[in-house]
Structures are given as structure tokens and as C-alpha cells.
């Protein structure tokens, strides 16, 4: 088998750290891809609060490589380093804004910017509500420069029975948005209304 291709997962400090953790878990199970993990300092705290005290250590063990948030000279900070795309989950408004306007002062934002300049997919699971005009303008700017804005919306039509089911669906949908071969995550698809009649 050829060498695994990298996928970058960034976890920033917004609430919803369990989604980023689940994305790492799902990707780590795929033999074709290798996870490069970048976690912001705020996300380290959120992972501990929302997922558990051992969450970061567990994700580091699953990842092919864990890169320090401050290491702007890491391999993934260069467009010449071959990766297939990036997901930021959750994506805080601070991270969204930094990506949108090119404020490249840490590895997470720098790496996201590299995906955009290299025309690779960048999926941002922006986690905030309600939104003011500045948030919406940052989303518009990020979209215009090539990012995919994918707020982590539960698929209520699938009637999830638990929070874990909702997280699984959101994580799988985010992975599928990368559009990569051999990387179809188990996201359930809408198959039509049960009330439809032929």
C-alpha cells in the first residue's frame, strides 16, 4: 500500500470539542489517511471540560502526528507538504476571523490559509449562536476565499436517539465534505419523507 495521505484536523476553543474528537477517531480508522492534529490552547481546556481530562492525550495517541499550536514552522505550514485537506472542528469565531482575514500568527490559522492558497478543501465547523453581522461577514469572507462553512447542525430528520448519534452524524458529514476517495464516512443520508406517496 502506498504511503498514507495527510488530513489536518484543527480543534479550536469553541464549545463542541467532542465533534473534533470524533472526527479524529473516525479518520484514525481509515488506512488511506493520516491525521495531523493541531489543538489551540483554548481547545485544550474545552476538551478537558467537555470530553474528559484524558481527551487530548487520547487524540494525540490516535493522530499520525500532533503539531504544537505555536509551531508555525511545522511541516503542514508549507504548501509543499502533501495533505488532502483540513477540517477545523469546532471553529471558534476568533479562528474563523483570523482565517478570513489572513492573521497567520499560529499554526492552526497558518495551516488553514495554506489549504486555501493551494486550492485544497478547508471545512470550518463554525460554532456560535446567535450571530451578529461581524460573524456573518467573516463567514462570507471565508467562503469567498474558498472555505466551506459547515455549522454543526444536528440532522433532526434522522431522529437521533442520543447526543452521541448527533455527534457521529455531524462528524461524518464534515469528513464527507472533504470529497476524498476512500474517505466516505458513515453519515446517514436523507432518503425521502416517510409521508411521501407514489
How does this model look, in words?
- Residues 7-170 form the Flavoprotein domain.
- Its EC number is 2.5.1.129.
- By secondary structure, the chain is α/β, with parallel strands linked by helices.
- It has a single domain (5-176), classed as Rossmann fold (3-Layer(aba) Sandwich), CATH 3.40.50.1950.
- Helices cover 38% and strands 17% of the residues.
- The chain contains 7 helices and 6 strands; from the N terminus they run βαβααββααβαβα.
- The protein has helices at 17-28, 41-50, 55-62, 93-100, 107-117, 133-144, 163-176, and strands spanning 5-11, 33-39, 65-67, 83-91, 121-126, 148-149.
- A 6-stranded parallel sheet has the order 3-2-1-4-5-6, with helices on both faces.
- Helix 1 packs across helix 7 (163-176) and helix 4 (93-100) crosses helix 6.
- It is globular and about 45 Å long.
- The mean pLDDT is 93.
Amino acid at each position: 500500500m502506498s504511503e498514507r495521505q495527510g488530513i489536518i484536523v484543527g480543534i479550536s476553543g469553541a464549545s463542541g470539542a467532542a465533534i473534533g474528537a470524533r472526527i479524529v477517531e473516525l479518520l484514525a480508522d481509515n488506512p488511506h489517511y493520516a491525521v495531523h492534529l493541531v489543538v489551540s490552547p483554548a481547545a485544550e481546556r474545552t476538551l478537558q471540560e467537555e470530553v474528559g481530562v484524558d481527551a487530548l492525550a487520547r487524540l494525540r495517541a490516535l493522530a499520525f502526528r500532533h503539531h504544537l499550536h505555536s509551531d508555525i514552522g511545522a511541516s503542514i505550514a508549507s504548501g509543499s507538504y502533501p495533505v488532502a485537506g483540513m477540517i477545523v472542528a469546532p471553529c471558534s469565531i476568533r479562528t474563523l476571523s483570523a482565517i478570513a482575514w489572513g492573521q497567520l500568527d499560529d499554526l492552526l490559522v497558518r495551516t488553514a490559509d495554506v489549504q486555501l492558497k493551494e486550492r485544497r478543501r478547508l471545512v470550518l465547523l463554525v460554532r456560535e449562536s446567535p450571530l451578529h453581522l461581524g460573524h456573518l461577514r467573516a463567514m462570507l469572507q471565508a467562503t469567498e476565499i474558498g472555505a466551506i462553512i459547515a455549522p454543526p447542525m444536528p440532522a433532526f430528520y434522522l431522529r437521533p436517539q442520543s447526543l452521541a448519534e448527533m455527534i457521529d452524524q455531524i462528524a461524518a458529514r464534515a469528513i464527507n465534505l472533504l470529497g476524498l476517495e476512500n474517505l466516505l464516512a458513515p453519515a446517514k443520508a436523507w432518503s425521502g419523507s416517510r409521508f411521501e406517496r407514489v
